[in-house]
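Internal tracking record. Fields below are filled automatically when a chain is submitted to the structure queue. Please do not edit lines marked as system-generated. If the sequence contains nonstandard residues, flag them in the REMARKS field before resubmitting.
Queue: standard
Priority: normal
Entity type: single polypeptide chain
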Amino acid sequence: MTSYRQPGVVLTDHRFTVPLDHSDPGGEQIEVYGREAVAAGRAGEKLPWLVYLEGGPGFGARRFTGTEAWLGRALREFRVLLLDQRGTGLSTPANRQTLPLRGGPREQADYLAYFRSDAIVRDCELIRPRLTGGVPWTVLGQSFGGFCAVRYLSSAPEGLAAVLITGGLPSLDAHADDVYRAAYPRIERKVAAHYARYPQDVDRARAIAAYLAEHRPESAGHRLTPELFQSLGILLGTGSGSHQLHYLLENAFVRTPHGTELSDTFQEALRSATSFAGHPLYALIHEAIYGYGERPTGWSAERVRTEFPQFDAAAALAGDGPLLFTGETVHPWHFDVDPALRPLRETAELLAQRTGWPALYDPERLAANQVPVAAAVYHDDMYVDTEHSLRTAAAIRGLRTWVTNEYEHDGVRAGGPRVLDRLLAMVRGEA
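SYSTEM-GENERATED OUTPUT FOLLOWS
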């Protein structure tokens, strides 16, 4: 183990070996990385553990500097493990460079089937006794990390002292189609709110989409299309995302000797904001996290979008209405336009058509839950449906909800220590 310091915190690297398939503990092993954080001056104390599960799927744990965001509040009483869930961060990677080691697309898809929340929770339960000596720990789950926390409550509640969920209460029984059918109207509301705040962006967005439709430029191997541009709407689910989108759009065009063109600055920003190079698992298994039984997800976001023709870029440009951005959706064309995904197109197709996904949640066990649970539910969260979340909250015995529109989906980060402080008070009966 390697330890080092940042302002106010001592950090220690941990690497754990876990089975790829937990039903075959003697089979292939992979590595899972976790970064321990403890307040400076308290490294030698015996403190309770809190494990942080990041959103996604496909993102490693947030890389904090010192005690920023919620971490400083947690370090007042916990020793924190920032876990890079399997396949992310410094854990055994799963991307276009490494997946060919598995073999062809079929072998790659079979491998990635072990990267859902059920396997992540089994990893946690192997790691926990190694760190805590068997003592239960507190889980903080953000977004998809909350999905993992609900799986934890369903399968291994004995490992939990308390559960804190921020923007991550999943439906217990919704198919991916139900998830996206509920999502597109929320996305449309967020786009309307953005255009109401920045009305000048209506014409800018149409002009950018029209240019992309005509010229189809490339940037560092990325094919810049109107649909890719629309996917910038994912920014609108965060507290500062509307402002970020506005500043990105205002710098789109530049005059050149050949006429008006999209600026290099804008093209680079679009490529950077939409690239999956740093988190390819997000694209590969995003719909699989909703997989259940014999019904495939089958590119659900793409299929369901046809029920909402107002999102069609070509139709918007042919008419005089505003171009609608999209949100947290993955489409087959992502695997054509993004060089980090292009070699994985067939693997993604096999995952989209896969059946036989095991159930992730146990309604009976959740109904009998004894673990203290508190969840921040962000009203009109663009990424996770509020109605689905509240229905699940009612199905988990003893779960307390804090429904708020003060924050967007990133409230636990944007709200600093306040969100974590409130949830801890709720699970302790102090609020």
